[in-house]
Amino acid sequence: MTQGDPRQEYLDASNNVRHWSTLRFAQLTIYVALTAGLLNVLFIRGAGSPRTSLAIELAGLVVTAVYWLLQERTMLYWYAFVRRAAELEPALGYTQYSHRPRAGVVSSANAVRVLFAVMLLFWGASAVNLV
Questions:
Q1: pLDDT tens column, 22-71
Q2: Helix/strand/coil (H, E, C) string of 6-33?
């Protein structure tokens, strides 16, 4: 078996990092648009019957759960490619990924998790008529 080219793999990993990062924010944009549409029907236009309101609120719960899951999966791929790029850097003399600032508790991933958790609580409270 022949040895691969670390620089080519590094470039590929970097492209994958960009792809998954872009996909993450595209998913978030779609989620916000869907949620805005549901909120518009529920609160501004009026859903009509209580049964219709409940259906919209349950749809909000499902959409939020699905997009949260999508975000988590997208981040797993992103982290995997960042780790792989960092592993390749010593052989190449690069430090872009291996010396990036550590996120800690305050990170974009955690900020998005808070957003989804708050929205799950909102839709759940709305479904049981607390909102």
A1: 999 999 999 999 999 999 999 888 767 889 999 999 999 999 999 999 99
A2: HHHHHHHHHHHHHHHHHHHHHHHHHHHH
Count Cβ atoms below 10 Å from residue 62 Cβ, excluding itself. Answer: 11
∠ Cα 57 69 10 (to 5°): 150
The torsion defined by the Cα of 98, 101, 103 and 108, in degrees rounded to 10, comes to -100
∠ CA 46-112-33, nearest 5°, is 35
Domain regions of the chain by residue span: 6-127
The secondary structure of 57-72 as a DSSP string is: HHHHHHHHHHHHHHHH
The gap from C-alpha 26 to its chain's centroid, in whole angstroms, comes to 9
- pLDDT of 1: 37
Give residue 95's Cα distance to chain centre: 26
> Tokens 């949260």 label which residue?
68
Rg of the Cα trace of the chain?
20
